[in-house]
């Protein structure tokens, strides 16, 4: 599938519902960034903006990037409703070059692309992390297809924390946490467990 076709598919998906996901932030974003001092943040594949808006509401200067204009329009509406400033950019992440070593926090949450494309995006994300800054990657874990609940049904867009670490090898980041994590999901039949891959990494400070 070409980038244009993929963008059109996501535009249609975002247009079909008021919000595909909740307006609340991802639980791992909240827990992994709780101790960080707000600065500049970059949310890649930001979708409808729930995570970027939450970061902005907690003092971060946020840029959210996505290739779906439909998603970004919803993101603008959410930011306006919450009364927080966020800079939104429409861009294909395969061709997007963030400002290097400029962000105290870079997030890539639930990016669903094949391995070669994923590596391109994650390497660019890593390059954007400032000295002392953090990179947070959360994704549907490869094992979720058989062992967890929900998520994409296409194995090619699923991956593990170890896959992410391999993508980031040589990028100058040090892993703080890299593991499979459980994410409770409320359903009409009761609570189910989704399995996610989580990697939290840091670029060493220049003074270290």
Structural class: alpha/beta
Beta-strand percent range: 25-35%
Number of DSSP helical runs: 7
- Tertiary shape: globular
Q: Biggest sheet: strands, sense, closure?
A: 7 strands, mixed
What does the average pLDDT come to?
A: 92
List the helices and strands and how they pair.
Elements: H1 3-15, H2 27-33, E1 40-44, H3 50-57, E2 61-66, H4 69-82, E3 86-90, E4 103-109, H5 115-127, E5 129-140, H6 144-147, H7 161-167, E6 174-187, E7 190-202
Parallel strand pairs: 1-2, 1-4, 2-3, 4-5
Antiparallel strand pairs: 5-7, 6-7
Overview of the structural elements:
The protein has 208 residues and is of the alpha/beta class. It is built from 7 helices and 7 strands; from the N terminus they run H-H-E-H-E-H-E-E-H-E-H-H-E-E. It has a 7-stranded mixed β-sheet, sandwiched between helices. Strand 6 and strand 7 form a beta hairpin. The N terminus is likely disordered.
């Amino acid at each position: 599938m070409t980038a244009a076709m993929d963008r059109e598919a996501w535009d249609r998906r975002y247009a079909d519902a008021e919000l595909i996901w909740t307006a609340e932030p991802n639980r791992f974003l909240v827990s992994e960034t709780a101790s960080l001092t707000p600065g500049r943040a970059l949310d890649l594949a930001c979708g409808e903006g729930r995570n970027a808006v939450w970061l902005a509401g907690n003092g971060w200067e946020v840029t959210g990037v996505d290739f779906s204009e439909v998603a970004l329009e919803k993101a603008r509406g959410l930011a306006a409703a919450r009364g927080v400033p966020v800079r939104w950019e429409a861009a294909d992440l395969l061709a997007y070059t963030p400002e290097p070593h400029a962000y105290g926090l870079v997030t890539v949450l639930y990016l669903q692309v094949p391995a070669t494309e994923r590596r391109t995006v994650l390497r660019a994300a890593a390059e954007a992390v400032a000295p002392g800054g953090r990179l947070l990657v959360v994704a549907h874990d490869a094992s979720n297809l058989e062992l967890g609940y929900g998520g994409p049904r296409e194995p090619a867009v699923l991956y593990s924390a170890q896959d992410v670490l391999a993508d980031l090898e040589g990028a100058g980041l040090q892993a703080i946490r890299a593991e499979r994590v459980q994410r409770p999901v409320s359903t009409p039949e009761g609570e189910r467990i989704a399995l996610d891959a989580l990697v939290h990494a840091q670029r060493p400070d220049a003074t270290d």
